[in-house]
Amino acid sequence: MKKVILIILGILILSFAAFVIYGFIVMPPEGAPVINGVSFQTQYPLGSTMIGTIDFGSYDKNVVGLVIKHLESTDKVNNVDLRPLGTEGDISGSITNTINAGDERNVITESFTVVDSNGRTSRPFPVRILYGDLSKVVNTYTQNIQRKNTSTSPKKLNFIIVKDTDTEFGDQSTSTSSGVVENVIANQIIPKINGIWSQCDVGFTLGKILYEDSKTLKTVNGRSFNSMFSRLNGEGVISVKSDQKSDALWIDDIRQQIGLSKDDYVVYIIGNRIINTSSGKPESGFASNKSVVIPWKYLPVQNPKTDEWFVPETLVSILAHEIGHNLGLLHPSESQISTSRYTDSNLMDVSEAIPVSNLIKEQCNMLIL
User: Fold this and answer.
1) How much is the mean pLDDT over the chain?
2) Mind listing the pLDDT tens digit for each residue in 260-301?
3) Of 247, 249, 253, 354, which sits most exposed with the smallest number of CB within 10 A?
4) Are the C-beta atoms of 180 and 159 separated by less than 8 Å?
């Protein structure tokens, strides 16, 4: 008997006792549930409800929970208790929920994991959906990340995983044991960044990948990365002001304390949100000189059926954008370049729906290398 659950995606407000959330890509234990497939439309119009199916195949144990991770987010995990909905044992039928999916264009990359009554979890199964008319933006991004980078003097790009900020990149019990982080950064993130920056003949090679606690990342004067953290409604966040330079130039001093060259570029991956204390709004990233801080909570997910990696386009675009600030570029509204010169989906245009990725000749000529 085919066991299928009909799911409506969105903001699911259901609470249940905590289930064991599967780490990443480690093979599930023998007898664990398996997701055979997740089926949704590839694109939905704004204001519509996203409906799809999760196929469990012939699993004969009690599936009691569903975990949905929004891979672009730092805080959206939907834990769905399936038991009150009569899904224990043989599963047949559907779950329906009324969801307000919103009206903003978005590339939605979700990861599905199911949990049985013994706490065993399936491998995560990813799905990617375009919400709203994003085909042109995404097609441009796809073309740009596939560009061959021919830079003859690539810059070294180091990654520091700030372990105590609740990012899966820093969960060494599950990620580094199988080389997942190294594989994702070297073979997924770096090539995509290089594809985008090949438009300006700028390239990057992978330097070091380091795992550090925020309190041990210190400057010459003893100030630590941890000093940027504060509490907001009980949540740990990084607080910055509108004038980011006044808060962040000291970050560049950290590199020398951990053995990196002053000429190297450094990406700090954290799991917490960045909050602008002047506006009270979250920031998607943070750039200072040759340093970037980016909230990237969840590791990319590999499709267990096809081995295809699902690396959120939005986060790659944000990282490439912040590197643009490292190289001296401003937002179009702040730049000396006439706004009429900018093409659609420009990498530095924060008013565009991400994933933006285009660069123009005038921007390439302004780079500080």
Assistant:
1) 78
2) 888 899 999 999 888 877 777 888 888 888 889 999 999 999
3) 249
4) no
Which CATH class for the 136-365 domain? alpha beta
Cα–Cα distance for residue pair 65/83, rounded to 1 Å: 7
The fold adopted by the segment(s) 4-132 is: Immunoglobulin-like (2.60.40)
Token digits of residue 71: 């891979």
Rounded to whole angstroms, the Cα distance separating 317 from 294 reads: 11
Only one residue has tokens 């204001």, namely 47
Mean pLDDT value across residues 133-162? 91
Token pair listed for 349: 């245009």
Going from the C-alpha of 132 to that of each of 42, 78, 111, 126, the distances in angstroms are 11, 22, 20, 19
CA angle 313/315/321 to nearest 5° reads: 100
Using only C-alpha atoms, the chain has a radius of gyration, in whole angstroms, of 21
Residues of the chain with CATH 2.60.40.10: 4-132
**Cβ count near 206 (within 10 Å):** 16
- The predicted-structure confidence for 15-46, as pLDDT tens digits, reads as follows 232 333 333 344 445 677 888 888 777 888 87
Tokens matching residue 359: 């660069």
Position 282: which residue type?
P
